[in-house]
Amino acid sequence: MDANETYQLVKDHYGAYAKRYDTELSLEHSQKVAQAFGYTLDELASIPDGANLGASCGNPLATAKLEKGEVAIDLGSGAGFDVFLAANKVGPDGRAIGVDMSKGMLELARKNMEKSKALNVSFVEASITSIPLPSAIADCITSNCVINLVPDIDKPMVFHEMFRLLKPGGRVAVSDIVAKCELPADIKRNMALYVGCIAGASNVGDYERYLKEAGFEGGSFLKPAVWPKLTQHR
């Protein structure tokens, strides 16, 4: 499967995932996933119910250290979960921008934006390898369980886009699935595991190389999170 086919597979899967929200995905399940990664009940109560689809693999906002008045961009923003939380943190003088290539997810995110009545939130339809936003616009860029879904050949482009979008001295906070060793070929070819955020996982060395080649300095890898044992999954 080539890169274009992979992108289409991911679009189709997550577009369908967004449409299943009202019928198959429970708020209780989504909240349990988020709480397992350190999101608080107060934070979860502050955003529209439809924003949290339980699709996180960590909590990038815990290390983003967002401040009032900042501009935050979330790559692969889905239904807007981390975007709405970031909007609360940066306040009315700041901005929170979500970027996603799935029309279904963006439709749900914009419905959530109407519910929230947030004036400092916006969403952009784009691949996270090529984002139609000005350079040096963001103070912080986040991403939550998304970069693994980008084909390996294009992953370096994501980090170059991050670097381009950040203001001098800006920062990134990424939660993602990372492989401890080289994945077997049969796993890499398994498309169910790919859209499930497993088969496309890079190893730590690749991540370090992507960051360095894009121009980043001072990065660190924090303690891995453990996925909660729940009865539902993607």
From TrEMBL:
It catalyses: arsenic triglutathione + 2 [thioredoxin]-dithiol + 2 S-adenosyl-L-methionine + H2O = dimethylarsinous acid + 2 [thioredoxin]-disulfide + 3 glutathione + 2 S-adenosyl-L-homocysteine + 2 H(+); arsenic triglutathione + [thioredoxin]-dithiol + S-adenosyl-L-methionine + 2 H2O = methylarsonous acid + [thioredoxin]-disulfide + 3 glutathione + S-adenosyl-L-homocysteine + H(+); arsenic triglutathione + 3 [thioredoxin]-dithiol + 3 S-adenosyl-L-methionine = trimethylarsine + 3 [thioredoxin]-disulfide + 3 glutathione + 3 S-adenosyl-L-homocysteine + 3 H(+). Keywords: S-adenosyl-L-methionine, Transferase. InterPro entries: Arsenite_MeTrfase-like, Methyltranfer_dom, SAM-dependent_MTases_sf. Transmembrane segments: none annotated. Pfam families: Methyltransf_31 (PF13847). Its EC number is 2.1.1.137. This is Arsenite methyltransferase. It comes from Glutinoglossum americanum. The keyword NAD does not apply. Belongs to the methyltransferase superfamily. Arsenite methyltransferase family. GO terms for molecular function: arsenite methyltransferase activity. CDD domains: AdoMet_MTases (cd02440). It is an enzyme of class 2 (transferase). Residues 67-215 form the Methyltransferase domain. The keyword Cell membrane does not apply.
